TrEMBL record, chain A:
Compartmental location: Cell membrane
Membrane-protein topology: Lipid-anchor
The species this protein was found in: Paenibacillus sediminis
Pfam families: Bmp (PF02608)
Keyword Chaperone (UniProt): no
Name of this protein: Basic membrane protein A
Keyword vocabulary terms for this entry: Cell membrane, Lipoprotein, Membrane, Signal
PROSITE patterns: PROKAR_LIPOPROTEIN
Stored InterPro entries: BMP_lipoprotein, Peripla_BP_I, PnrA-like
The ABC transporter substrate-binding protein PnrA-like domain, residue ranges: 37-334
Stretches that traverse the bilayer: none
Entry keyword annotation includes Membrane: yes
Family per similarity comment: Belongs to the BMP lipoprotein family.
TrEMBL record, chain B:
Lineage of the species this protein comes from: Bacteria, Bacillati, Bacillota, Bacilli, Bacillales
Coiled-coil intervals: none
Molecular function in Gene Ontology: ATP binding
All residue ranges annotated as the ABC transporter domain in the record: 8-243, 260-504
Organism the protein comes from: Paenibacillus sediminis
Keyword terms of this UniProt record: ATP-binding, Nucleotide-binding, Sugar transport, Transport
UniProt cross-references to InterPro entries, sorted A to Z: AAA+_ATPase, ABC_carbohydrate_import_ATPase, ABC_transporter-like_ATP-bd, ABC_transporter-like_CS, P-loop_NTPase
Protein name per its UniProtKB record: Simple sugar transport system ATP-binding protein
Family annotation (Pfam families): ABC_tran (PF00005)
Keyword ATP-binding part of the UniProt annotation: yes
N-terminal signal peptide: none
Automatic annotation (TrEMBL), chain C:
Protein's cellular compartments: Cell membrane
Main location: membrane
Protein name, as recorded: Simple sugar transport system permease protein
Domain of life: Bacteria
Organism per entry: Paenibacillus sediminis
Key words, A-Z: Cell membrane, Membrane, Sugar transport, Transmembrane, Transmembrane helix, Transport
InterPro entries with a match to the protein in the record: ABC_transp_permease
Classification of source organism: Bacteria, Bacillati, Bacillota, Bacilli, Bacillales
Short name of any one Pfam family annotated for the protein: BPD_transp_2
TM region positions: 12-36, 63-84, 91-111, 117-134, 196-214, 248-267, 324-346
Topology of the protein relative to the lipid bilayer: Multi-pass membrane protein
Amino acid sequence: MNKVFKLSLVMVLAMSVILAGCGSKSSSSNKSGIKIGMVTDVGGVNDKSFNQSAWEALEALNKDKGINIKYLQSKSDSDYNPNLNKFVKDNYDLTWGIGFSLGDAVKQVATENPNSKLAIIDSVVDAPNVQSVTFAENEGSFLVGVVAGMMTKTNKVGFIGGAESPVIKRFEVGFKAGVAAVNPNAEVKITYAGAFDKPDIGKSLAATLYNDGADIVFPAAGSTGNGVFNEATSRNKQGGSKVWVIGVDKDQSLEFGDDVTLTSMVKRVDEAVKKVTQEVIDGTFQGGKTEVLGLKQNGVGLPDTSKKNVPADVLAKVEEYKQKIISGEIKVPAE
Amino acid sequence: MNAATPVVELKQITKRFPGIVANDSISLQLHKGEIHALLGENGAGKSTLMNIVFGLYQPDEGSIEVNGKPVVIDSPNKAIELGIGMVHQHFKLVEPFTVTENIILGMEPKKGFNIDYKSAAEQVTKLSEQYGLQVNPHAKIQDISVGMQQRVEIIKTLYRGADILIFDEPTAVLTPQEIAELMDIMKRLVSEGKSIILITHKLKEIMQISDTVTIIRRGKVIDTVKTSETTPSDLAEKMVGRNVTFKVDKKAPTIGETVLKVSDVVSKNKDGISVLSGLSFEVRAGEILGIAGVDGNGQSELIEAITGLRKIDKGSIMMLGKEISNLPPRKITEQGVSHIPEDRHKHGLILDFTVSENLVLETYYKPPYNKGGFLNAEAINNNAQKLIEQFDVRTPSIETKARSLSGGNQQKAIIAREIDKNPELLIAAQPTRGLDVGAIEFVQKQLIAQRDQGKAVLLISFELDEIMNVSDRIAVIYEGKIVGEVLPEETNDQELGLMMAGSKKRVGDDRG
Amino acid sequence: MDKFRKIFTLDNYIVPVAAVIMGLFVGAIVMLVGGYDPILAYSSLFTQVFGDMYDFGEAIREMTPFILTGLAVAFAFRAGLFNIGADGQLLIGMTAATFVGIKFTGLPFYIHAPLAVIAGGLFGGLWAAIVGFLKAKRGINEVITSIMMNWVGFYGANYVVNHFLLVPGTQQSENIAPTASISIHFLTGIFGNARLHWGTLIALVAVVFFYVYLWKTKQGYEVRAVGLNPNAAGYAGINVGRNIIKTMFISGVFAGLAGAFQVLGVFQYQSVFASSPGYGFDGIAVALLGMNNPFGVLLAAILYGTLTYGSAGMSFGADVPPELVKIVIGAIIFFIAAQGIVRWVLGPFYGKRKKEKVL
């Protein structure tokens, strides 16, 4: 009797714990022998941002081409090396490092294993077997800056950066330039969260900005930005003046809804991942080069869903600036 | 009485704990209107037995009958339901609550959603009048005396409808006057039809108040006797298992020079209130000075001041002509001061240290125990081996934790440590508290032996008997001052009790 | 030797071992319900750690900070102090080591590296001693101050890196001078470039030091006395306040060394942290698991490191998401902390044995 009770206690305990622990995004099939690995940064694969974009791209390739894919999450900086090594030692055909913080680790592993193939997003690694992919975030941010500048009712918009790095600086500078181009009177408030994985900080920073009169906030801060969406949603629900968020990296209206997502600065991490991975599948992979994806290469931009909230005249203006940037008529500052 | 059914009958109760049999087939009958004393040394199994009656433990064998019906008491609530109440040695009261709030705690009379304080207070007053338990129902516990608090505990059990009251060492914390009052209360209770089990090891009280005595030794009932048909020495012998002398044998003191001289010491507590207010006395070599007083009149603070644990604001403390006030404790110890603390668990021992570690608690830093910063295990163990033999500390081994020793043996270990330091002054605070007759005898003999060797002994005790029997001179402390000095052969309990209560007058007329 | 055996009495280790087994068991059930193969998962976990030299080396690297932060927390526990601040002490120690490693150039390695290590330990110790000082002199609860000091340490470390050591345009400091590195180069070769360093050896020395200091020296006697009964220690003439400060200092030295080794042995640079690496908090779990005993802490750190490092193997080999590994670790800690449950489940076995003994 007692034993049965104890056993069921253990079961209940286990069940309650399961709710938290379900779900795996790893999948594999054996139609093709090609194996692609991916190492996330500390944001994790469900960051609703570039880690997730990259993984979704690999999942799409897995579906279409039948390649084997797998990811490893990094719990701390010290995991980068062993995680990359795990794939390299297992003879993966390509190992992705997602995010600039993996730069040193990718460099070291690539140097130690010259026959391996690696690729990195958002950082430039100078090694013959590494393909680096960076984005002209300043160009895309310029365009959402145009949207923000034209649509702000309070003449105040906010920007929340994850941490002061060259990549995030490109977001900030481009956004400011875009706002200034269409609305020189608008003020852009800049803050930094100091973290890419702290939605709570994002939420409180957003609250400060909105309280301060900003009606549009553009977070470039990984999952910290989720807190910004959270704050905006709850404000809109309580009534009061309407506030907006500009999504980042992905089309975040799909995640957080059209009520708060004005538009998104989409960084086509997925396109980049698909492109480089396809090169490996095709056997045309070339290491040692850096690909900068800007508006011209369709590496950054606004998603189609923008038209739900952004009026046509504003979108027309955006298109106009886009062409000017592509043609080189406007040079968007990067730092 | 013979025909009457006992209100409580314990039949062949046996309770085992790992390694020991705490109660071995104990049988006991409590009759209505009777005060039944349960006598035994510490660790004899009295508390275990009463915890079984009160539902805190379950017996392994045997049965309990209440009013002739077999019952299973599996919780204190069940015991209360059966009309059994317990007055614990350590009161279980909420200090900032009022008397009434404490009494009704857990059984509050309700008026809608609110507690009906008015009717509760009325009921408390009614109970206190019925049994002669005077209390102010609206006073806070923290503001009333210990004797008063005990009355609250008694009313608490009566409020819950107890007919059978268990008193666990009720006089341990009381002044002589309060003890006398408690005796009256107990008599009143039985006259109102209650029955009482009194747990104690004080023979005097048993002789004074109980009707029947059951003596327990090592978990077994040795005898049950009518109080009127026995004598204290008979009881003591049964309790300890050998002949006990009550007379403390001591020869006349050979008094030498002054060892400790305390002059006009003033010490204030955190709130700026003087806890020692101009206190003076001296202890000479070869004598035992007893400090009598009711708990809380500055005894603890006095000891702390002498041993360096409390800063004094005025006055001086001289040890063999050297000023020692406000020195660090270790410096004072090194002047030849030894100290048997009042609370052996809190201050005297590190319970989770082994016996051998405890025996070097004040000397570990000196050679031979300290060899270049490292402990010399051999020397420490030899010391322990020597002391436990010399002072008859009963312990399974020197590696046993002090926690698992009985109270008497813990105290012996402390005394061994303190005396082995060969001090000039031995301060003994409540050295026999909670000890049984055998251990008390041992402790008192050690104090006298120190005095006979020409050492100064300062004895602080709340037990008047001890003060009277052991001291060569008695100083009475009241509100942080010495209010009088008397010689034991020239005074009596009555006079001391009045002095302790703050009356400075010597009341010679009351004698006889 | 006698003492040594006593520390490892049956009762002492049976509970942690049972807790570990129960934790693994709960983890297995969770995996089963989630549709994963627990046997494959656990075997992948162990292959990940013991499978090849590289991984084994990296696993050792992973365990090292756990040993030291575990010792830090356990040491303070022995004096009755709850050092939640190991995290801050670690970061301060790390920063001090990084600073010395970068700025004190031109020294030969046999001076530079030890100097950087000592700086790390010293600053971690001093950082913790502040907490001890406040407790000893002002009676301020060490839990509160050490939590506060974690934040001060965290932002202080980032400030120093940002303003004095940063490589412009990045989120990390310059690399330390090669003379300050404590990597063991001949071993990294053998271990397939795993980042092995002398710090691991020092951590093992620290384990022995912990034991010898506490149980064999005069000062350790004082620390234990203060930890078990500060009142009696004070009565016996032991200076309680000084022992609290000293204990916190030593505790902080352990944590500071953990931080120093991460830079000098593993990364060779210090990042501007977005969030604390959390080794100090893991140290609490390790100390708890190791029952505040130095050798227990070592074993707990090995277990803890195996689980955290091996979690990648579970993801890799059995596709188990890393969250699940956290559940297993969490369950083990839970069972350790809730010893009552373990004893209750073990109850029937215990009872039987006890009775046999009595008979």
